[in-house]
Amino acid sequence: MNAYIITRDNLRTWIDALIRDYTLVAPVREEEKVSLFKPVGSFTEIDLNYTNSTISPKGWLFPQTEEMFFFFTSDNQVNLEDACKPGTTILFGLRPCDVKGIIALDPVFNGTYQDCYYQMRRQNTILVCLCCTRVERHCFCNSMGGGPTNGEGADLLLTEMENGYGIEVLTSRGEELVNKYHQLFAVDGDNRVSKTRDEMGKKLASQFSRKVDISGIKEFLDQHFELPYWNELAQRCLGCGICTFICPTCHCFDIFDQSPDGESGVRSRCWDSCMFSHFTRMAGGHNPRPTKKERIRNRFLHKLKYHRDRYNLDGCVGCGRCINKCPVNIDIRQIIADLQEVARYDQLPLS
Ligand code: SF4
Ligand code: SF4
Q1: Which residue lies with its CA nearest to atom 7 of ligand 2?
Q2: pTM, to two decimals
Q3: What's residue 11's pLDDT?
Q4: Which residue's CA is the closest to the ligand 2 atom numbered 6?
Q5: Are 70 and 253 in contact, with CB atoms under 8 Å apart?
Q6: Which of 101, 131, 264, 283 has its CA 20 to 30 A from that of 162?
Q7: Residues 167, 3: contact at Cβ < 8 Å?
Q8: Domain layout of the chain by residue ranges
């Protein structure tokens, strides 16, 4: 793996060159407490000192509202025209948990179901990951197989160093992004970048406020669909859906048509949430998840079991956003700990 070092001045020049040559989507602080990813027009707009963005960057591959295609009728025929024509985009400065979130989304849209809209964006997107330099109160990526300096899945991995940034090349697409502006980079001949990253990883490992043990949880849930525990949780849940909208791995959506004249229009999709009662309501009125109990159970089974069943990946990357934003403090780390407790109790021999 090739590694390079770039000074802070050259980083600025590099980013401004990337903005000129590509669409660069990077973390931006919109208000004092809200950070999110959006296209930027200059280096000065970017906030590389953020911890974790309020809203996950998944929307750049799976937009909150997305036009899929236009339709119009002529000569008694329905004609379709693609709405999505993405150019090459660089998602710059993603934290490792959000890269892992994208890796968890990939098989959903590029597996049994081939989703051309997601794939078009994904194939045209280069992921530049930025190692964390501190750990937030709600972070638990290290319990979910990730870590604050683990850039697996990215094309380039950046590590902040004393006088600049280290850049490790993880894919050929990443290499191209360096080679194109090679005069800005110095080759890291003595592995300073990986040593700095390792030291940062060790330092941050001790900063997590909570570590959870997910071993055996999926296997326990395989055997225990009905648990009184879900009723208790449902009594607290408001069904607001915030947890699903900010989650980097949630991917429910709804599809709708808009056609003011009945002859032409657009088909779009927008995020939906399994926490909403109408999400599974059928045309005849039947709802297989009629109460909050079934809905909250579905959300956590998706995170801890279904995603692993389907794709052999966890449906949670430990970003902590849902813990941070849930208005009634429902905490997936506590749910994992509670399920461990229930599982232990379940395995006690009956006396
Ligand atoms: S954010 Fe909390 S209250 Fe709202 S739906 Fe999710 S778990 Fe329920
Ligand atoms: S379930 Fe919560 S902690 Fe896990 S990835 Fe989604 S938002 Fe992050």
Answers
A1: 247
A2: 0.94
A3: 97
A4: 247
A5: no
A6: 101
A7: yes
A8: 3-66+78-205, 217-347
212 CB near ligand 2 (under 6 Å): no
- Over 60: is that where the pLDDT of 351 sits? no
Whose C-alpha lies nearest to ligand 1, atom 4?
Answer: 240
Bridge partners of 69, per DSSP, are 82, 267
- Ligand 2 centre to CA of 253 (Å) is 17
| Strands of 3-7's sheet in order across | 34-39, 23-31, 89-94, 125-130, 156-161, 164-169, 3-7, 186-187
> Could you identify the atom of ligand 2 that is nearest to the CA of residue 321?
7
> According to the model, what pLDDT value does residue 348 have?
61
Closest Cα to atom 4 of ligand 2: 316
Is the minimum distance from the CB of 239 to ligand 1 under 6 angstroms? Answer: yes
pLDDT in tens, 5-37: 999 999 999 999 999 999 999 999 987 778 999
Structure tokens at 220: 């326990």
By the 10 Å C-beta count (0-12 exposed, 13-18 middle, 19+ buried), 278 is classed as exposed
30-84 pLDDT per residue, tens: 877 789 999 999 999 999 999 899 999 999 999 999 999 999 988 889 899 988 7
Which regions of 144-287 does DSSP assign to beta strands (E)? 156-161, 164-169, 186-187, 253-258, 264-271
CB 336 within 8 A of CB 217: yes
Q: Give the pLDDT confidence score for residue 346 in this predicted structure.
A: 75
Ligand 1 site, residue 240, Cβ cutoff 6 A: yes
pLDDT at 349: 59
